[in-house]
Amino acid sequence: MIIKNRELVVEPGRPFFNDELKRLESAEVLTQLVLSTQDPMVVCLDAPWGQGKTTFLRMWEQHLKDSAVPTIYFNAWENDFTDDALVSIIGEISSGIDELSTPEDISKTKEYLDKAKGFGVTLLKRTVPVAAKVATAGALDLDKVTEQALAGFAESIAKEELENYEKSKKTLSAFRDSLQELATSISSKEDPKPLVFIIDELDRCRPNFSIEVLEKAKHFFNVSNIVFVLGADKIQLGHSIKAVYGQDLNVNGYLRRFIDFDYLLPPPEKGLFVKALFKKFNFNIYFSKKTRRDSQYEGHQALEIFSEFFEIYNLTLREQEHCCSLLSLAIRTTPNEYPLYPLFLCYLIVLKVKEPDLYKSFVNEEMGPTELFEHLSSKSGSEALIENNYGTVLETYIMTCKSQSHDTDGVKEKYNAVTSSTTASDEQKARAQRILGLINKFDWDGGVGILGYLVNKIEIASRFSS
């Protein structure tokens, strides 16, 4: 059994072989989109952080390459230490040219690349800002500077700025021309395809760098045969933009200036990813050894309850992986003959990962069992779980987890009141009777007062995982 999920392997020729989330269809849709035009295009692959964007983009990158589509992958977050996004983007193109070019075309491709680099360097050269030049006048004795001299000084600055603007405009045009030649040179002449430049993790960058990448991609690389694909959580990207331009900015209006199409990466079906995680963590090795009558179904219970709570608490894929990592470590401290109490253990793990403040309040006696169960009952989508058998067992664990063995009369009182009520429905009475039976069973086999036992496992696991 492993502790941490292994990094996914993307194999050339079958990049979606290990695709547990069934996202090949999305790759095919996006491939058709980028191949549908030779016009400049910027596409945003939108999904919340932790929902598998990077894994998908890596798979799709290889899928494009297998389809002879020239493709470059650029992790913006790993490169936001640079001062200029243009340097990073040109550098990434430069490093990927050898792989993209055929041996017979490599010399011509590098010629176009060198031209683009040359024009790019020119564009990077900063002219001394007007404000700085005007400030220089402050170093002079203004009492001795005539009004005519100051007027002449300002006129010379304006003339220089105008000349620089005209030069920059011509250089930008030449830069784009050389990029278009470069993109054409690395594509098949019989079946021309655009250069696809994937920019990932844009939402995790410094706000200034994120904005600069957007602006440079649109203004400098807006040429035929180049398609930019941005991997980002647009909500988080919006926070970065507002951090620079102010909280009142219309983020959607701003982004629409740079992004031509949005593609919302669909979330996986309920339980699909957790099944893949259980397989990758090799949980079956441990659970297959649980053969006693009262523990032989613990593996199924853990899988089912995680599937339910991952949906109810809206965990990202990364958070789901963290939960399975904690479960893996908790399992390593539990001998086969010891009970794991997976229904309650997995719920506590989900709270630890998704709602740590609530978890801490419950563990530290600031919140009682009744309040915790009310919290669960208030969550959207929890009704079906609470009403089924697992929900009944879980409620019993919650309500008795802080009790002492053979001292559960206070807990039973609530459910005895339901069974004798004249206003309770038959279903409510039956459920209360079922819980009373479970309390007696737990009191007999050690299921009462298990909070400390399970929390100890989680906290030990948390120290390892952090």
From TrEMBL:
Residues 27-296 form the KAP NTPase domain. It comes from the Bacteria. Gene3D superfamilies: P-loop containing nucleotide triphosphate hydrolases (3.40.50.300). It holds the Pfam family KAP_NTPase. This is KAP NTPase domain-containing protein. It comes from Ferrimonas lipolytica.
